[in-house]
Amino acid sequence: MYKLFFNKLDKNKLNFFNEKTLIFFFIQHVIFEYFFYFYFINLTCKYFFIKLYISIYYTFLI
């Protein structure tokens, strides 16, 4: 399934899905989650880690 998806993409589009861009988006997402949940909402750590886990899950899903 994974190989079929990437075989359908062009080479130009495939360059977007390299490791550096995925790591960059992942780090950016984690920083945003940390900043948002701790400084704006100011919720408990337990709730933050649940949300962080969900965000990590969806980051790798995309």
Q: How would you summarize what this structure contains?
A:
With 62 residues, this protein is an all-alpha fold.
Summarize the topology.
Elements: H1 2-8, H2 11-16, H3 19-41, H4 45-61
Helix pairs in contact: 3-4
Report on the structure:
This protein is an all-alpha fold and 62 residues long. The chain has one domain. Helix content is 85%, strand content 0%. The radius of gyration is 15 Å and the shape is flat. The model has no long low-confidence stretch (mean pLDDT 64).
What is the molecular shape? Answer: flat
Spans of at least 5 consecutive residues whose pLDDT stays below 50 are none
Cα separation of the termini: 14 Å
Order of helices and strands: HHHH
Largest sheet: none
Supply Rg: 15 Å
* Strand-residue proportion: under 5%
List keywords for this structure.
mainly alpha, 62 residues
